[in-house]
């Protein structure tokens, strides 16, 4: 038998559980997002840009896409069979 860490041994399982909880606690206490003003500003700018370009009428978006496709087909140089 191997003498390494095995899941069937209670001590090995306990070691994995303790390691998991310690690493989870270290990550959860990082609070990097709370102190980084640069990324907070970038998020606000991205939210504003998304809100400015968002169109509330889905039919308007669909019609705009359809018009663009038809314009592209009309100017396309592909040979139709």
Could you characterize the architecture of this molecule?
The chain is mainly α and 81 residues long. The protein has one domain (10-75). 72% of the residues lie in helices and 0% in strands. The chain contains 4 helices and no strands. The chain has helices at 10-28, 32-35, 37-53, 58-75. The longest helix is centred in the first third of the chain and has 19 residues, at 10-28. The protein is elongated and about 70 Å long. The termini are far apart. The model has no long low-confidence stretch (mean pLDDT 79).
- The average pLDDT is 79
Helix content: over 70%
**Ends: how far apart?**
70 Å
Oligomer, anyone? single chain
Uncertain runs with pLDDT below 50, 5 residues or more? none
Shape by Cα distribution? elongated
Number of domains: 1
The secondary structure category is mainly alpha
InterPro entries: Pec_lyase_N
Family: Belongs to the polysaccharide lyase 1 family.
GO molecular function, one term: pectate lyase activity
Organism: Paspalum notatum var. saurae
């Amino acid at each position: 038998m191997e003498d390494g860490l095995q899941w069937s041994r209670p001590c090995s399982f306990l070691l994995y559980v303790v390691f998991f909880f310690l690493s989870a606690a270290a990550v959860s206490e990082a609070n990097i997002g709370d102190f980084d003003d640069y990324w907070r500003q970038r998020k606000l700018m991205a939210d504003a840009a998304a809100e400015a370009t968002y169109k509330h009428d889905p039919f308007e978006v669909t019609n705009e896409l359809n018009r663009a496709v038809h314009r592209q087909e009309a100017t396309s140089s592909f040979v139709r069979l």
